[in-house]
């Protein structure tokens, strides 16, 4: 629930910059880098028009390609499925095309400031997302162990829920210096951020989320831990994250990544699609009117990559699904990292062995969703006996776990996300078809809302996804387990290739699973910008002295390095 994360600091200065997801591991101001009039840097004129392979057409790949194009390079984008990656917006067959479902990313925090740069750039609009107990949510029902509670604010829930909220606030303050870190991030106090985080990384790298709760006096009650796991904070229950590293959770709460979410009007996939078609006003080498689409034959990316290997001169040779072989002096890999272990035949020489180990150890979480279109937002009807909404945003320990109600006005068709689940809860749905899933979900929701006939409002077939079953993803997003900090550091810092042997340079890793904030589009953008800096540096380019890039200031803000022995 949004209100369970403590508000550490009262903010009276309206000019103060918002908190940003730039830290705490690498407190670099990507939003300032993007906003600077000098741009992201330049390459020597002798390199203009040089091709760079960009493998993966998700948000990270499209952002990287867009910025490389502006510098005068020629990005060649490879995409196995569709532009967008996990920004995947789909419609419903036979229904109004304005009805859409977000199969992947659907809610974005204001702290995603680099992401917001591109949302604004392509002219997209956002609106509040109806999370549990959020201001944009008319009502929320919490249904645990067969008992339902209706609430419009946290104060409407029984005292035990407020006790759990207080316990989480105390747990964060006592175990993770929440107020101090939140303040340092908001003020962009890099020395203080690094001082706090260095101690916590050393102390907590081996700790699970659940172990962190158990070590807190505030959560000595199993009942409180159970309720917290099922109801949680921000977006709902977090018990599926209990086995993960507590460092992953702290990154989310410090940066308010789970608060004040907004959705993109018309669907998130519009962002990479618009960037693909966009003709930048400021562009080097290429004529005005150039876009990523215009640089690709037929306006489409090249097909899936099937082989990657190093060839003479330390070049990267790419073979695609059509059998076409092309060789590049530089490449950016933005697809999910497990593709390098399964779908793509790779030379061991692509990366140092410790980077291969980190890729192999990457832990992905499963996730599934199912949406149905309905005739209208009937949930806003009032129950004649109680005066309450007949149906609400729902958190439950039943199979559905989280149910979201999405509308665009009282007289228009609407969409219900009947279920959004992660990990073990997602795997429970895996063998079932979309219609089978819907039937189980309607049964569960019928037990919570016995007077509501959801089925009579459904106007089209359900759409569903299980990301663990998607052949080019095999999971929803990375989530480090305890002890994985060192692996993540290797992957994130891979763009600093002067530190690598010469025969291991030229291919750059990016994507949200390379970032410290996996599962968030902001991480995809940040790692794309790191890779752009890396490619620029690789070709002998440089940033403007007034706008140093992430690699220029690396030594001052490098992630904490834990001993290997």
Automatic annotation (TrEMBL):
<feature type="domain" description="Amine oxidase">
    <location>
        <begin position="59"/>
        <end position="534"/>
    </location>
</feature>
<feature type="region of interest" description="Disordered">
    <location>
        <begin position="1"/>
        <end position="20"/>
    </location>
</feature>
<dbReference type="InterPro" id="IPR002937">
    <property type="entry name" value="Amino_oxidase"/>
</dbReference>
<dbReference type="Pfam" id="PF01593">
    <property type="entry name" value="Amino_oxidase"/>
</dbReference>
<dbReference type="InterPro" id="IPR050281">
    <property type="entry name" value="Flavin_monoamine_oxidase"/>
</dbReference>
<dbReference type="InterPro" id="IPR036188">
    <property type="entry name" value="FAD/NAD-bd_sf"/>
</dbReference>
<protein>
    <submittedName>
        <fullName>Flavin monoamine oxidase family protein</fullName>
    </submittedName>
</protein>
């Amino acid at each position: 629930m949004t209100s369970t994360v403590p508000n550490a600091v009262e903010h009276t200065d309206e000019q103060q910059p918002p908190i940003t997801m730039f830290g705490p591991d690498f407190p670099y101001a990507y939003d300032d880098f993007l906003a600077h009039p000098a741009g992201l840097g330049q390459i020597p004129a002798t390199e203009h028009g040089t091709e760079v392979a960009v493998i993966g057409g998700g948000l990270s790949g499209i952002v990287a390609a867009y910025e490389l194009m502006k510098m005068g390079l020629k990005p060649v984008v490879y995409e196995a499925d569709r532009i967008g990656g996990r920004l995947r917006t789909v419609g419903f067959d036979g229904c109004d095309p304005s009805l859409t479902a977000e199969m992947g990313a659907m809610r974005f925090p204001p702290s995603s400031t680099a992401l917001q740069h591109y949302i604004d750039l392509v002219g997209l609009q956002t609106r509040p997302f109806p999370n549990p107990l959020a201001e944009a949510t008319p009502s929320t029902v919490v249904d645990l162990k067969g008992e339902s509670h209706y609430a419009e604010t946290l104060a409407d829930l029984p005292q035990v829920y407020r006790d759990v909220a207080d316990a989480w606030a105390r747990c964060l303050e006592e175990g993770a210096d929440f107020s101090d870190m939140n303040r340092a991030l908001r003020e962009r106090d890099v020395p203080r951020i690094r001082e706090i985080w260095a101690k916590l990384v050393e102390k907590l790298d081996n700790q699970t989320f659940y172990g962190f709760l158990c070590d807190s006096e505030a959560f000595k009650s199993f009942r409180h831990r159970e309720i917290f796991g099922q109801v949680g904070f921000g977006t709902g229950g977090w018990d599926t994250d209990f086995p993960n590293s507590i460092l992953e959770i702290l990154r989310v709460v410090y940066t308010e990544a789970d608060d004040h979410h907004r959705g993109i009007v018309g669907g998130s996939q519009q962002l990479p699609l618009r960037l693909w078609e966009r003709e930048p006003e400021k562009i080097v080498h290429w004529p005005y009117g150039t876009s990523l689409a215009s640089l690709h034959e037929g306006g489409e990316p090249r097909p899936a990559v099937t082989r990657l290997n190093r060839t003479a001169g330390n070049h990267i040779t790419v073979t695609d699904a059509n059998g076409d072989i092309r060789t590049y002096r530089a490449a950016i890999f933005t697809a999910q990292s497990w593709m390098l272990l399964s779908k793509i035949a790779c030379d061991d020489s692509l990366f140092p062995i410790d980077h291969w180990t980190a890729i192999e150890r990457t832990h992905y979480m499963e996730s599934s969703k199912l949406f149905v279109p309905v005739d209208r937002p009937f949930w806003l009807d009032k129950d004649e006996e109680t005066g309450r909404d007949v149906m609400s945003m729902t958190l439950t320990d039943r199979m559905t776990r989280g149910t979201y109600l999405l509308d665009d006005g009282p007289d228009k068709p609407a969409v219900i996300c009947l279920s959004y689940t992660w990990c073990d809860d997602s795997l429970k749905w895996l063998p079932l078809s979309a219609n089978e899933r819907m039937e189980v979900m309607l049964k569960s929701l019928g037990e919570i809302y016995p007077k509501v006939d959801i089925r009579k409002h459904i106007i089209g077939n359900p759409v569903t996804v299980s990301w663990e079953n998607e052949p080019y993803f095999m999971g929803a997003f990375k989530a480090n387990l305890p002890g994985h900090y060192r692996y993540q550091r290797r992957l994130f810092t891979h763009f600093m290739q002067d530190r690598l042997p010469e025969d291991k340079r030229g291919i750059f890793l990016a994507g949200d699973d390379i970032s410290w904030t996996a599962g968030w589009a902001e991480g995809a953008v940040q790692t794309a910008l790191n890779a752009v800096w890396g490619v620029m540096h690789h070709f002998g380019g440089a940033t403007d002295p007034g706008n140093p890039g992430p690699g220029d200031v690396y030594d001052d803000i490098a992630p904490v390095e834990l001993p290997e022995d």
